[in-house]
Each structure stands twice: as C-alpha cells, then as structure tokens.
Amino acid sequence: MTVKEYLSQGSQVSTTIKSKLRQMQSLEDLATNITSTLSDMPRSGTSQTLDDIIGKIVDLQSDVKVEVDKLIAIKRNIQDSINALPCAKHRDILEMRYLSDMEWQDIADELHYDVRHLYRLHDEALLKLCH
Prior knowledge:
With 131 residues, the protein is mainly alpha-helical. It folds into two domains: 8-32 and 49-83; 87-131. The protein is 76% helix and 0% strand.
C-alpha cells in the first residue's frame, strides 16, 4: 500500500458510510409510504412488509456502526502518523486533505498558497511520511 492509499483509507470508509446512510433513508422513506389495504385477494409474494423493511434498516444501522468504528480507528492511526511529521505546514496539509476531506482549492485558500505550491508541499509531506 502506498502512502497516499494509506491516507485515503478514511475517505473510502466515509464513502461507504454515506452510501449505507442513503440506503437507510431510502428504506425509511419506503416504510413511511407503506399503506395497508384490506382485501380478500391474496397478497403478492414480491411485496415488502413493514417488518422486512425495519429489519433491513436495523441491519444497515449495525453495518454503519461497524464502519464508523473502523473509520475512527483509521483516522486515529492516520493522525498519529501525521503528528510524527516535524513540519507544521506538512501536518496541516495532510490533516486538511485526509482527515477533514477538504478539496485542494479550499486548502490552498485557507493556507494562502497557490494550488501548485500546495501540491509540491503535499508531495514533500508524503515523502517525509514514508521515511
């Protein structure tokens, strides 16, 4: 695993969490829209019951908790690695990019750097981090 891949792990887990939260929201929306109709006609085997949907929501909530715990551990590990860097500007750049998921332009604006200069500093920080 490269240094950049190592630092990007948190972003990947965050994406997974966001996806699962969107799935939960979709299921919650579906659950609120289910209506019961009284009929003497047999029910179709393809319709989802409210219990099925609630069960899926509970499963997703459990999955999200596991992923959040994983994200916390990854970010703690990354933070420890970043904290070991001697240069404060390198630490700031890596924290903003990999722990706060900031965009390059936003980091450049906050630190008052040109984006190209920021890329150079980022590359320097990655080299220092892997040594």
